[in-house]
Amino acid sequence: MNQRQNFDSVLAEREAYNAALAGARRRGGSRPALLAVLVVLALFPLVQLTGANWNYPLHLMLYSFMYIAMTSGWNILGGFAGYISIGHNVFFCIGGYVSGMLLASYGISSFLTAPLAGAVATAVGFCVGFITLRVRGPAFIISSIALLMVARILFDNWDFVGGSNGVSLPRMELPVQYVKIPYYYAMLVIAVASLVASYAIRHSKFGLGLRAISQDEIKAESAGIDTRFYKILAFAISAFFVGMAGAIWGEYMTYIRPNIFLIILVAANMVLMCILGGKGTVAGPVVGTVLLVAFNEFFVSQFGASQINILGTGIVMILALMFFPNGIVGTLRRMGKLPRILDWD
Amino acid sequence: MTDILQILLIGAVLGGVYALMASGLTLIFGVMKIINLAHPIFIIIGAYVSYWLFTLVGLDPILSMPIAMIVLFCLGIVVYKLIFEREAASARYSEMTVLLTFAVALSFDGLLGVLFGNTQRITSPSYAVEAILLGDLFLPKGQFYAGLVSIALIVALAAFLKFTRFGYAIRATTQNRDAAQLLGVNVGLVSTVTFGIGIALAGASGALISFIFSFFPARHWEWIALLMSLIVLGGMGRLMGAVVGAFLLAIVSAFVGSYFGSTWSMMTFYLALFLILLVRPQGLFGEKME
After folding, report:
1. Which among A78, A61, A58 is positioned nearest to A270, based on CA atoms?
2. Strand runs (DSSP E) across chain B, as ranges?
3. A289-329 residue pLDDT tens
4. B275 touches chain A (CB under 8 A)
5. Burial A36-66 (b: 16+ CB within 10 A, else e)
6. How many Å apart are CA A31 and CA A33, to the nearest integer?
7. CA-CA distance, B213 to A227, in Å (whole number)?
8. Does residue B262 sit at the A interface (CB-CB below 8 Å)?
9. pTM for the model
10. Per the CB < 8 Å rule, is B277 touching A135?
11. What ipTM did this prediction achieve?
12. Which of A42, B195, B199, B251 could be bridged to B11 by S-S, CB 3.0 to 4.6 A?
């Protein structure tokens, strides 16, 4: 009898613990503040009405939104499941080319085809993940580099999409002060969607499974998690957001070409922003992106050359990995000093 | 028939060079379990050392190879001491070290770009443009010499590992790090020196490729997947595995290149890498990778 009670109490405790881990635990407080930030961001393009030229700040912000979306996507695989991919810009490229070719051939705007581009990236991600997620750890990282190299050769030599010269896309007819605004909103929507998806995944059974995989895959498997399916699904979802961002970015650049999508710096940025902000946290990609974009701007304005930018990116990455392997959000949380506005988990 | 022999010959000579390029990578993986994504950038640094010695002083790249090795050995030790030594206790060691090597590669890529720009360079000693004719067969002298020197260096490395006390220590650490430490091997020192040797081998192959391939800082991203395919095929951490993998894939890619065009010869390595990871991740001779 006593034993039975004991058993029930243990079970109740475990259920409460699981609910706390997976459930929507919320200390409250940050949600109104975040909504306020979102409203400010949504109203920000109104500054164009003042007559001054705000195009450059708008460009930087939409560029940041793009990287927030891509880094959040990367984080689903690299942060939650612990599978580091250095070839994730392949999906950026696929997204850009799907929408870009539809725009060039049929004149359909990327804003309409972006979800389709994301879906194609997801499908490719599913297939690639099916192959490469059979291995883990270092072998997976190598396979992701190989994927990038294969994609580069294919796109450089595929005549239908213009080979290494790419394809130029029609420009949207808009007065100069409004030319960036549609892209601004598109990227904002994608970024917010990626963050909402990150949050939802982190608080679901699926997210819990991914975290178990990142801790110890064999134990996760023996605990009854279908690790293979979980990993492939995480890969596919992460490809979706990267692909959507690529679709909008291609039209924004007005041309699609392998060397705007398939350069290693794009992949390095995704990895670095996520690590700098905090791998496996929802807010990490945002913090990392804002910091790194600001840092890049500083470098380019002070020194100009993009080569110095690569050097700077590398050194920041070394220092971040050596001294803040948990990232800013992760380190602050461990110290118990994370401001509530950044506690999005 | 002559065609096939010709392709085999070129493939075999290149295989020797690839084997040297991959030998340091596999050595470092064997002892430290670090997948050194920065290996090819060290090869390019070695190539620059030879290039400048040839351009400024007129020193032949094969003769400047020892200098490149010494420079890169020291660089390797410094990088190891500064960055990797403190990671030894890290809980996520393999993931952290791969990311760190990626960051190191990025830093040196940028640094070389700042110093020398992204122009293509190649050293041009007289033999780089000459060829040996063996009946109907044609053998570029540069590739032939590079292949010969590479094979000689690999034999020397194998002898060093097989017959010297320090070589014993390296092999023991490769097989079982904890057991080696228990038996009195100074694992820390072995790791440091092995990292230095591995990078020195990268420097040596850099000196040799400086006259057979044109190089520029960002070229190394192409090579990392190529070198990985060689050592994954042979079984990671095994020197002989890397050599066999290098000869096999170099010959296959030479055939692919001559029948389908040179773009696809690079594709051979990348597809081979996928295929091996898919079918036999531990490679031909290796034990299963973690």
Report:
1. A78
2. 131-134, 137-140
3. 999 999 888 888 887 767 888 888 899 999 998 988 888 89
4. no
5. eeeeebeebbeebeeeeebeeebeebbbbbb
6. 5
7. 44
8. no
9. 0.88
10. yes
11. 0.87
12. B251
